[in-house]
Amino acid sequence: MNWPIPIFPFTTSSPSSDNVTLSFTRAWIHGLPRAPDLYGARLFHLFSPTVLRSSQPVFPYAFFQALLVPREELSKLVQKFSSASSAFKERKVRVLDLEINYIETFGNRHNAHPIFVLPGAFGSIEMDFKPIMHEFNKEKYKWIAWDPPGYGKSRPPTRPFLPNGYVCVYEYDVKYATELMNILGYQHYTLLAWSGGSITGVIMATNQPEKISGLITWGAGFFETEAIPFVTAMKEVGLAAIPESRRTQLTKMYGEELLLEMWNGVTEEMIKMAESKVYSKSGVIQDVLKNIQCPALVIHGLKDALIDVSHAKHFNSSLRNSRLHLVENGTHNLHLRETKEFVNCVQTFIDKNLSLSYDFTCLIIKMKRLISFSLLGYSKKLLGGPQFQFRNVKQQFSSASSSLAFTEKKVRVLDLDINYIETLGNSQNAHPIFILPGTFGSIEMDVKPILHEFNQEKYKWIAWDPPGYGGSRPPNRPFKPNSAETVYEYDVKYAEGLMNKLGIERYTLLAWSGGALTGIIMANKKPEKVSGLITWGAFGYAGRNTVPGVEVMRKLGLAAIPDWRRIPLTKMYGEELLLEMWNGWMDESIKMVKSDVFKEGGTFQDLIKNVQCPTLVIHGLKDALIVPSYANHLNSSFRNSRLLADPFS
């Protein structure tokens, strides 16, 4: 249990004293003036018999000792602490592979709207958040801030400028910022992003429109080639380019040697960002900005010597639902110098605009999902905008088959007979899309029920039964094949062989769950053939903490499969073979989880980062098998990707 005062905890191991302590504590609590539930509810929880019997640190020793002093004195102590304007907790938490430091205010824990603060270059909790947090309304809003990886107390390691697979470190930050908020349990929140942190904020708002209810930036700008000489000069000047007051603080935090190393990393990355043109006023970032659905506020200081006000105006005009606020005496760090105006502007925007706009945005998103918001329509750049939806289709294929034109047959691919389906439509000009199903996926169960939704004039749809599934039998599915790390890797040569056999030279891959592993390898091996990759229900690494869960599923056997899926699978394979296949899949999953190849940071990550074609990662927020953090990780690992997270599936 986390407590806002870092005092030595106590443990108790005397069950005989439970009832006495519990009765005394409850009597004492009832005598206190009404305090925030931070004290009332937590004290009842902490002194329950179950907690008292545990051997874990649960409560500050000083507070327990305080129970022995007169109630009036302790009441004053609690009141004094609870009314303090800076009631917060600061601690580290494991986020993916890093220890991330964050701070979180208490306030009204149940109704306060969360605001996540994303600092910019050299930004930290200590220097940029704590000095102004006394101005924040902590009853209406819950403020969360972090030290990005390599900054402040989120060290070691040091800040990874120009990380592999990313244009800049702010992109790299996205997966950690997103996962931190997942760990803290926040489903909807506003982003408050400063300077370079606005890049992280913009990507988060694009990736998770259902979670981000508002975006506020200040000191945000673009990276133009014209700025390269200026940044180069800053690099050559070294630490002397940093204002003295800021430099003194930074030197105290990092030491001069590390600070100089970080300064060189920052400036070199800025030069590379400008050269890439990705974050220029005419770069790819413009499409990202235009796709942001939530309300936005752009704040900028007219005396900002680093970012000209023209950047803020362009930034504001690029967002579809934004307003601009200019601070007359504001510098680049206006939050520290013009704090009252800054905080007032932020809180007024949220009060007046956010709640109504967010409800409306959610309604629009929901309507689009329910009416015509299509999977590939969202990805027009990949395919040109076909209109179809993934849904829980309960119709039998027979009721729709009369309107379909397709062929289903087997063809010899290498040493196996592979079953596949191919729509006819406009076979001359239609763009081919190859569907790669996941575990136990097949044409009969996963393609035919939704085939009637496909646009068969503009697109040629090809789907297969992977070796050992559906109609591609015998032989049975070869889990843990000798020639490959997984059966999905084994599938690659047959999937490529099938498309070669059909004479299809260029195509998009549409890959579900484990089939995404096959798709990622294919996109790596044949970049000249794979024009786009779309995944859903997919993962890019296997967390080792999932081994116990997989082992439990293996013990449960077929009972672990939902009825609606188990019944048709039993009909297709028979119970004996299905159980054999289930155990094979479970054993292979455990092997994958324990493998260095599929661990986070393993060699498979390099394959993901090397995918050149545009990608779209789709994920259901109610997916009980693959949690959303895996989709976030996969999306951030691709070099040219967007994420569509559906809250209704």
From TrEMBL:
Tree of life domain: Eukaryota
Keyword Hydrolase in annotation: yes
GO molecular function: serine hydrolase activity
InterPro entries: AB_hydrolase_1 (IPR000073), AB_hydrolase_fold (IPR029058)
AB hydrolase-1 domain: residues covered: 114-220, 432-562
Record keywords: Hydrolase
Membrane-spanning intervals of the chain: none
UniProt key word Acetylation: no
UniProt-listed Pfam families: Abhydrolase_1
Stated name of the protein: Valacyclovir hydrolase
Taxon lineage: Eukaryota, Metazoa, Ecdysozoa, Arthropoda, Hexapoda
